[in-house]
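$ fold --in a.seq
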Amino acid sequence: MAVQQVVPLRYNDPRALDKELKMLFGDGNYAVDFEMGQFILTAPRQLTENEIAHIKSKQRHYKRRSNRGNEVLKVLDVVTMESWR
């Protein structure tokens, strides 16, 4: 019998989540719905705390993206300053 579980993930990459769930449950043995900002897993069993921690460790975080954004802003600042000269 399948069980449902709210999986506490933020900023999730759906492909990474799918890859980890396929490794745990096999292809087609689970479903994930996204409702009101929460991932709801339907699977043969609930994920353990260790499994959730492992899945979280595989996720990309905004910190990485925002560093790239800061680099772009620095370049834009330089371009803007040079255009005012």
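$ fold --in b.seq
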Amino acid sequence: MQKFFISLVLLVVFLSSCSNENISELSIFNNLAFRLHSKEKVMPLEAASEKKYRTYFNHHSQTQIPLLKHVKHQDYEIFIGIPYNTTLERLKKSRAEADPKDFSCAPNYCLKHYQRDSLTITEYIYRTSDQSLIFIAALTSSQRLSDSLFNALAMERRLFTKGK
């Protein structure tokens, strides 16, 4: 009987130590995941998150990019959306026409940095091997953080296919 209680206590301790704050990846879809950094927390999608996302990112009326995930750190926020009924080429064109400054593209992604409301904003659009699109946007008040965490190489390294 004593072994049963010890086992039960150990099980409870183990289960209580597992929390969302300790996850290191965020599933997106089709075995695609987003690597999380230390102290990043996956947030529930609430009205305030949706409003902030729409205010900063989903303002291109010709493109719909619903919010899928929200990640928060004390120094920045990341929003992940899934563009639909569009292509990377159309998204490149609409972002470049809006403001061609600080905009770079490669065959499988586009990256745009800009300032708004004293924030440094990054928009990263990535085309997966199966031609799906992922929209990752970040807000931070630190230009230094934006340059180091949200550059093209850092963003690409955060996306990975599970099981590979």
